[in-house]
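ugh ok so i messed up the first submission bc i forgot one of the chains. this is the corrected input, ALL of the components this time, i swear. 465 residues overall. if the numbers dont match what u have on ur side tell me asap before i send this to the collaborators (the ones from the other lab, u know who)
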Amino acid sequence: MKFGGTSVGDGSRIMHVAELAKEHKDSGNEVVLVTSALNGVTDLLLKNAKEASETGKTSTIKEFIADLTKQHHQAAHDAVTGRKANRIAEIVTKELDLRIEELEKALIGICYLGELTVRSIDYISSYGERLAAPIVCGSLNSLGVRSRSFTGGEAGIITSDDYGNARPLEISYSLIKERIEPMLKDSIPVITGFIGESEAGIVTTLGRGGSDFSASIIGAALKADEIWLWKEVHGILTTDPRIVPEARTIPVISYIEAMELSYFGAKVLHPRTIEPAIKHGIPVRVKNTFDPSSPGTIIVKDLKQSKDIVKAVTVIKKVALINISGAWMVGTIGVAARVFTTLANAGVNIIMISQGSSEANISLVVDESHLDKAAKAIKAEFKNGIIKDVVQDKNICVVAVVGAGMANTPGVAGRVFGALGKARVNVIMISQGSSQHNISFAVNEDDATKAVQVLHKEFGLDGEK
Ligand code: ASP
Ligand code: MG
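and heres the new structure output, hopefully the right one now
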């Protein structure tokens, strides 16, 4: 079970988390708890590290350390209950103080050095989780549950040394099993999410939001029955409830569909998160900490072709379209390669691609913030000829219709575009990969809401069909 930052936002929430874990342990399960940092703490650590390197002001650091101490002490007191509450809070705060002292030294060091390496960023940002874990552990202890806390590295997450975005090494799986499995019978180990350790024993992090990834690695290593990600949402939804109030939680979804959705703006999960789970065939469940009795969404390996062909409709805003055209492009080998290489070198992320068989134009959708550099780079690359026109449009949105059931089902595209036609929504660009799990199209910004609403209804996602 992994709990996100909002779920462990303060002492009373941590208490709730400990109760949930205990409840599941008491009903006959073995539980490992992976914790995020208290809500917002990672951001603050990063901000203060940056300021320390830029301004060198130790007084700011002292203030930050005082606030951080107060916040975590308070949480430690509020997270414990029962006869031994005071005693446990005292042990926890002592441990917190030791860690905070190390953190303070590191930050002051950065003030004096005036530089912040990727390696130090990982070290500093790891403290969010390293301060959360002892509190969660104390909370479990106060409920009479045996528990010990581990950093990611102590638990066996050994990674590459790509600081800020480290990849777990294969050896982690056997190490985690060796170190954590023996504790499961009569305790709930608490492991910091987000962080690992390089082979040389240096702290690394798995990327922002990386606690889900940690949970997935640990679950895979232990061959867990399920990996539960407790969040502040009801699971994965059929669409954005701000656009369609009737949006519902999707009860079951396949890995492939979940991946398609995470790419398309439903930022509940990062695809890399479920990669270890996919590899080991372990179901991942997304549940709401604040509504624990509702089942959430379960993500499974294979799904029998279900009757709901379309699972969800998503929309990506703040994107822009670039259309590249020119008669010379037709039949000229290497144009696409040059377009994409140019964009890659300019640091542009491409969201969607379409080229018709006439080969006379290539349409791309990019992040709105990348539009200017993208257009400039292409114009510069092709200044003498092959490409004649580079047209840009900022006022678009991308809508994606997702569902594995669409594969080999004739008529889905017909229904999608038929429904849009009836609603008088003009489609500007279309793309469907041959996996047939996702039909994406661009529409005018003003039509996006209508497009989503119409399709959500057309495919019965509001539960009416
Ligand atoms: N605390 C880390 C972050 O905010 C990791 C996580 O919350 O999953 O990015
Ligand atoms: Mg977070």
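quick check: Residues 312-458 form a domain with the VC0802-like fold (CATH 3.30.2130.10). that seems consistent at least. The chain has two domains: 2-224, 312-458.
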